[in-house]
Amino acid sequence: PVSVASVAVSKARECCGSLEGMRALVIGSGEMSMITCKHLSAQGVDVTVMNRTFSKAQEIANECKAKVRSFEELAGAVNEYELLFTATGSISPIIDEEMIETCSFDRYWFDMAVPRDIEYENGSFGIHVYRIDDLKEIVSTNIALREDEARTSFVIVGRQSAAFFEWLKALTIEPLIKTMYEAAYRCALTETKRVVEKGFVPKEHEAAVQKATEQALKRFLHPFSQRMRDASDPLRADSLIGAMSFLINENDDQTPPTQKSYKGS
Fold first, then answer.
1. Could you give the CA distance from residue 81 to residue 67 in angstroms, rounded to a whole number?
2. What is the pLDDT of residues 29-40, one digit of tens each?
3. Integer Cα distance of 108 and 16 in angstroms
4. Quick check: 120 and 129 in contact, CB under 8 A?
5. At 119, which CATH number?
6. Which of 10, 13, 11, 83 is nearest to 46 (CA)?
7. Are 90 and 49 found together in one domain?
8. What b-and-e string marks burial along 136-146, b requiring 16 or more CB atoms within 10 Å of the CB?
9. Which of 104, 119, 152, 179 could form a disulfide with 96 if both were Cys (CB 3.0 to 4.6 A apart)?
């Protein structure tokens, strides 16, 4: 998920390239500090946790395989790490310009607290400070991009799903249509033989009668088969397939009782 903590670490990676082997100081013991530590550890950063209550910092350090330092060492520690992340509940800044010393390396500080933990404006110490407002703006941009991607994905999934169900429907309908035509052609063959045997049609015209009967049946069945293929509503298609399967299934004896009595009479 997109969070201020994950965005802060992503911004650090964007600024520094690979974070592998870099040192980071995370100040705070809340959920945001925990998430920050986990993201940093996953990037191969040497993480140290600090909090006013040492035991809380120790809990995070244990879970994230990080180091822990006493909050009393803060003034010196801010000058020892390339990366610094703060997310405390302090009502006043915990870091001010009086603590800052010149270092031989660039530093990237991420103040994720409200109110601010860091009282420093980008100046002459080679420190790049990113505030909560900067990070929230990135979060909002990322969420908007994800929403756009989600809408695009939804359209793609919808199209592919529709195509899949059309294909699935064809797997069911086409064998049914084939069975329907085969049953009709068997009837045509039976009736052709019957009229020839009865003498209604000369033997030499049997093939022509057979072909004409099949053509008539094909012309009759064509609109029905086409409408079966065109059925777009899945529920309607399923009902149609079920009804047609019942009607042309010659093996199931599902004739209503009244018709059975009539046939037997």
1. 13
2. 999 999 999 999
3. 9
4. yes
5. 3.40.50.720
6. 83
7. yes
8. eebbeeeeeee
9. 119
Q: Are 52 and 28 in contact (CB under 8 A)?
A: no
What digits encode the pLDDT tens for the residues 218-250? 888 888 777 777 764 555 666 666 776 676 665
Same domain flag for 164 and 100? no
Q: Tell me, yes or no, if the pTM score tops 0.85.
A: no
**Domain ranges, residue 236:** 155-252
Element (H, E) at 67: strand 67-70
Token readout for 249 is: 């299934």
User: Cβ of 208: how many Cβ atoms within 10 Å?
Assistant: 12
- Residues 175 and 247: their CA atoms lie apart, in Å, by 14
Give residue 43's identity as a one-letter amino acid code.
Answer: Q
DSSP state of 250: S
Residues 163 and 243 in one domain: yes
DSSP summary character for residue 21: T
